Amino acid sequence: MVDEILRRPDPSGRYVIVVRRTSTSWEELKKLLKGYGLEVEEAGDVVILRTRSRRIAREVALQALKMGILDSG
């Protein structure tokens, strides 16, 4: 699933990670994301994260997968 996210960036050159918002997991992930400088767009029960860095996208996607909030799209 993570490799699918990292396969190709969107047309603006950013990797897009979609996570489901749950009360505890999202708050925990938000604390971890502070230093990454991601673009965050909250849309209902999902949160869209964008970054130009493949390394950061991989780290964030793996952490979200581990927490069980990575959305398969």
In short:
By secondary structure, the chain is α+β, with helices and mostly antiparallel strands. It has 3 helices and 3 strands.
- The amount of helix comes to 40-55%
- CATH class category: Alpha Beta
Q: Determine the CATH topology.
A: Ribosomal Protein S8, Chain: A, domain 1
Tally of extended strands? 3
Please summarize the sheet with the most strands.
Answer: 3 strands, antiparallel
Parts with pLDDT < 50 across at least 5 consecutive residues = none
The share of residues in extended strands comes to 15-25%
Chain-averaged pLDDT: 87
Architecture in CATH? 2-Layer Sandwich
Describe this protein's structure.
This protein has a single domain, classed as Ribosomal Protein S8, Chain: A, domain 1 (2-Layer Sandwich), CATH 3.30.1370. It is built from three helices and three strands; from the N terminus they run αβαββα. It has helices at 2-6, 23-33, 54-67; strands at residues 15-20, 39-43, 46-51. The protein has a three-stranded antiparallel β-sheet with strand order 1-3-2, with helices on one face. The chain is globular. It starts with a helix and ends in a 6-residue tail after the last helix. The mean pLDDT is 87.
Architecture blueprint of SSEs:
Elements: H1 2-6, E1 15-20, H2 23-33, E2 39-43, E3 46-51, H3 54-67
Antiparallel strand pairs: 1-3, 2-3
Q: What distinguishing features does this structure have?
A:
73 residues; alpha+beta; Ribosomal Protein S8, Chain: A, domain 1; globular
